[in-house]
Each structure stands twice: as structure tokens, then as C-alpha cells.
Amino acid sequence: MLAAVSPLPWYVAGPLIGLLVPILLLVGGRTFGVSANLRHACAAIPLPQGAKPSFLRYDWRTTGAWNLIFALGIGVGGFVGLRLLSDPSAPLALAPETAAALAGMGITDLTGFVPSQLISWSALATPAGALLVIGGGFLVGFGARWAGGCTSGHAITGLATLQVPSLVAVGGFFAGGLLVVHVLLPFLLAP
Amino acid sequence: MTPPDPRWRHADAPDSASGGVATLAPEACTDTQQVDHRPGDPASGVSFGAFLLYGLLGAAFGLVLVQSQVVSWFRIVEMFRFESFHMYGVIGSAVATAALGVWAIQKLGLTTASGEPIRIAPKAWGDSRVPGARYWMGGTVFGLGWALLGACPGPLVALLGGGISVMLVALVAALAGTWSYALLRDRLPH
Fold first, then answer.
1. What is the pLDDT of residues B41-72, one digit of tens each?
2. The pTM is what?
3. For residues B55 and A72, is the Cβ–Cβ distance under 8 A?
4. A106 touches B at CB < 8 Å
5. Rg for chain B, CA atoms, rounded
6. ipTM of the prediction
7. How near does any CA of chain A get to the CA of B3, in Å?
8. Which residues of B33-72 are buried (b: 16+ CB within 10 A; e: fewer)?
9. CB contact, 8 Å: A117 with chain B?
10. Are A77 and B157 in contact (CB under 8 A)?
11. What is the pLDDT of residue B6?
């Protein structure tokens, strides 16, 4: 019913996301950044302190509880958006050039938000599916902590506060992304 | 000229370097803004009401991510192929809005709801011989993962909450990646 509001235009979605930065600062002096939660979640795993690398030994409750709750909220928002306000059978209105390029790689099902031919439980058994889900997830976790932030922490908070290291990190994000989309995926999914 | 501990300055104290917002001196090689805490914080760092607010803000974020299709693997491919303005519009206008908000906070000398000064920890350059190593190396590794999975950490959680259950595997893999980074951290350039 409300699927008509999707996709939300960029000039509505972007400002709404950007507003989170000043709001979180005003509410509790918190810095918007989602990937720190991967570290908080690792730190929260109840293991003897000696079993953890020093990077994961800190008081995650004080520093990260707010953010873990924020992340939990993202999951709830995702539930409302995907389950109540979206039509999962509607194909995405992708740029025709992108759709054609994907079709050339055998990706023809544009419904849902993930390519079910690559990202699904059954696709996990294929090399491509395993690389996307397990490899991709691993690199996201590894890279976000190495770089000290992800899209929200560097590309949004970092750029908005004019931090040059964040610009370098975003350059890295693009270097990696371009490599995957223009080299790795065509190679991996060559007919 | 740096005061002994810039953390606890009041936001309205004169600060020639940053125009009113108290800033934190860069610390080498630490995620300063993510492991900061203030004296007087309750054990959790958050009161119940604040918990609720953070949860609601997160839910709003997750909802916008889904409704704007930022969570879509296809949109990420489209972005890296430069075939649609949508993602650039979302990120660009988010940055502009955030910058405007931060500028207003500085201009008006605003404090947090509980009256504490607002400070934004600068990202430190690190101490590696390779300049900015952690940012471009770590950034590239993150970019590889972002494009493969088609989701960064926020969208990953939104998709999982939305019932794309295979994303649980991706989340566990991301935690394994974080743990591996923690193990290898001392040997990686930063």
C-alpha cells in the first residue's frame, strides 16, 4: 500500500540521514558511525579478558551501549521498511545500462533488495555466493575497523566535519568498489 | 597553544582553532571518538529515555535506508558503474545537511541536552611510515567488501531486520573480520 513512497527521492533521504549527525551530537555528544558496533559486539562477547586481543578489551557498555541500541533500531526500521512498506515482488527500477550489464552476467532477477541468484542460503554453496556473502562480510568488518570507520563514519560524518583522513578513506572505499564491480564481478560471473 | 585537557572545555570558551567547538587532540592510532567516555556517565553511558531515543533514531535511519533503496545490492553496483545519480544524491545531500548542522552547532555554541560541550574528535593521521596507510588501505579493503556484499554495516543490519536471513552469515563474517583485524592490528600499517 505504502510501497508507492519507495524509492524515497535522494533529496528527501539524504537530508534525513544527514540530520542524524547534528541530532546525535545534540542528544548526547555522540558521533554518528555504525561500524564501531562490530567492535562493540566483539567486545561484548562474554569471554575471559585474556582470550581477547587488546583492541577488544574495553568498557563497551559505557562507550558503545548507545550505538548498539541504535543498530538494533536499524534492524527494526529495516523490518518495517521491508516487511510492511515494500513490495518484495516488484523489480527495482534500475538504470537500464546497469540492468543490461547485470543480465550479461546472468543476473536477471531484480526483485527484492539482493540478487537471490547470488545472495541467498542456497547460493552460499556456490563459489560466487560464498565470496559475496562470507568474503564480502569479512572484508567489511576487517576494512571498517582498519580504516576506523565506514560509510556513515567517514563518508558522512568525516566529510561533513571536513576531515582529510576521511576523504582518503572514501577514496579507498571507491577504489575497492570499482575493482569489484568492473573487474572482479565480470570475471566471477563470466558466462 | 593547547590547554592541558581540551576535553572538558566549555563550548563557549574561546577556541581559535575550531571556532567554538571543543576538539580533542588527535591520538595516534586509536578510534578516539568511538571509545571516549565522560566522567559521570552512568554505567551504561545512557539513561533509559536516551536508550529509547537512540533506538528510535536508529529505526528512522533503517527505514530511510530501505525506502530510499540504499540497502539494495543492485543500487551499489549501479553507483560504482556511475549509471545513476541516486546514491550520489543521497550521500551528497546527507553530507551537506550534516555539515550545515555541525556548522550551526558551532556557530550557536550549542551544548548537548545535558549541557556538556560538543566536540568532534579529529581522525588522527596515524604513525605509519606510509602516510595515511590505515585510511587508504583499510578503506580499499572496506570498499571491496562493500561492493561484494552490496551493503555496508547499516544496510547489513537493516536487511537482516527485514528478514533477509542469509545476512546473518554476512554479519558473523563481519564480526570475524573485526576479530581478525584485532588480532593482526599490531602488524598492520596505520
1. 444 556 888 899 999 999 999 999 999 999 99
2. 0.87
3. yes
4. no
5. 19
6. 0.95
7. 21
8. bbbbeeeebeeebbeeebbebbbebbbbbbbbbbbbbbbb
9. no
10. no
11. 40
